[in-house]
Design goal:
Layout lengths: L1 E6 L4 H10 L1 H4 L3 E4 L1 H11 L4 E2 L7 H10 L5 E5 L9 H13 L4 E2 L2 H12 L5 H7 L7
Parallel strand pairs: 1-2, 1-4, 2-3, 4-5
Helix pairs in contact: 1-3, 4-5
The structure holds 1,3-dihydroxyacetonephosphate (13P).
1,3-dihydroxyacetonephosphate binds next to helix 3 and helix 4.
Keywords: Lyase
GO molecular function, one term: methylglyoxal synthase activity
Family: Belongs to the methylglyoxal synthase family.
């Protein structure tokens, strides 16, 4: 599965902690991240990730483009609900695309626990069916 990892600054420690705790699961998948988040995760865990630009510089949009092209299977996006983001429209657009394409999105530690455990149990295998059928690429 292709998994994107993103965290706002105030949530980066939480995401690093989360990925560290579940790295045995994450290492079985192809990981992507926005710039700074990816660097932090790589430094903490040694996991290799494809890093896009930093969120404020277009990284959220790069991940959004991959969602639109049916190339992302799950998103862990630890958002900071208490701090205004200069690129709020990009954040909203990324969340919107997850809804457009029914891509599982965890925006906090609570839902992330469920998503990672669901992933481990094989509950996201339907994504392979979607991809085999080429769904989500039309239009
Ligand atoms: O801003 C972000 C998500 O909106 C995350 O970007 P960074 O990982 O580069 O900090």
């Amino acid at each position: 599965m292709n998994i994107a990892l993103i965290a706002h600054d105030q949530k980066k420690n939480d995401l690093v902690q989360f990925v560290t705790a579940y790295q045995e699961i994450f290492k079985k998948h192809k990981l992507f991240a926005t710039g700074t988040t990816g660097l932090r995760i790589n430094e903490a865990t040694g996991l290799s990730l494809t890093r896009f630009k930093s969120g404020p510089l277009g990284g959220d949009q790069e991940i959004g483009a991959r969602i639109a092209n049916n190339q992302m299977d799950a998103i862990f996006f630890f958002r900071d609900p208490l701090t205004a983001q200069p690129h709020e429209p990009d954040v909203t657009a990324l969340v919107r695309l997850c809804d457009v394409y029914a891509i599982p999105l965890a925006t906090n530690m609570g839902s992330a626990e469920l998503l990672i455990r669901g992933l481990e149990m094989g509950l996201l295998e339907w994504r392979n069916v979607v991809k085999e059928n080429g769904e989500g690429n039309e239009g």
